[in-house]
Amino acid sequence: MTFFPTDSYGLIHRVAAISAAHTDNELQRACASGDLVKVIRGTFAVRAERTAEEEHRLLAIAVALQSGPGAVISHESAAVLHGLPMLKPSLRRAHLTIDATAGGRADRHRHVHASRLGPGDVVVVEGLRVTSLERTAVDVACTTPLGFAGALAVFDAALRKGADLALMATMLQQRRRGVAQARRALDLADPGAENPGESWGRAQIIVAGLPVPRLQHEFYDGHGRFVARTDYDWDGKLVGEFDGKVKYCKHIGDGETVVDVVTREKAREDRLRGMGVMVIRWVWADLEAGRVAGMVRAWLEKFGLVAAA
Predict the structure, then answer these.
(1) Which domain of life is it from (predicted)?
(2) What is the pLDDT of residues 113-127, one digit of tens each?
(3) Global confidence as pTM
């Protein structure tokens, strides 16, 4: 494999490669052989196993470097650079914002938004101009195609990362498309939601008009021994758990397998049930099918926590 000059972001630029005495034919052969992948015209990266977010990071940086100093990485692209999880984000295009009232445009690789940027709206991340954590969360919340659920997920994540709630509320006082769903989501945002799947489940519960659950409550037995910290609970009677792959991977200890984690979860659940706490579980497919609210309602009715429909 030919080694090309790589910048601090992991990108290979044609101009730098040519300056280092490589040729366009070498770059083309490296792409054809699979050693390199094309990020955008004139920019490449070494082929590697990357998540969708890691691929988008390279795209966003490459587009920003080609766009000049006036452009600021924003929206989903800024969220990726901030490490801000989102609910089913579209990562096909890199998002940039220019400080203007007109001039927005989109092409194959980039979506340029025209919007006023205040002095506190821009920060530097990895040496690049990026919208602040708060501005990024607000922009995503107002534009997500997932509506209230997408807005709730990004605000939950932003609060987990220490975003300023009051500042985001102030930003949402301005009129803009999507602001109604964003305001409602911010009012109900909770940093206790640990991932977008947990936020989506809570969003479905809220939209159905059911009581909002308590998040990450710790249960102790009659001897004061810790039993469990749960995703959702209602009055200590009903517990809801979202079973996502991330959860099981996160709790795998040294030398353990997923089977070990599942076995431990089963024992934990049995201890809760032994305390008189009902535990229900759902997976991503239940979220996709919109089944969560119905599952929760049935048990809330049994416990008398909501009136029977």
Answers:
(1) Bacteria
(2) 999 999 899 999 999
(3) 0.92
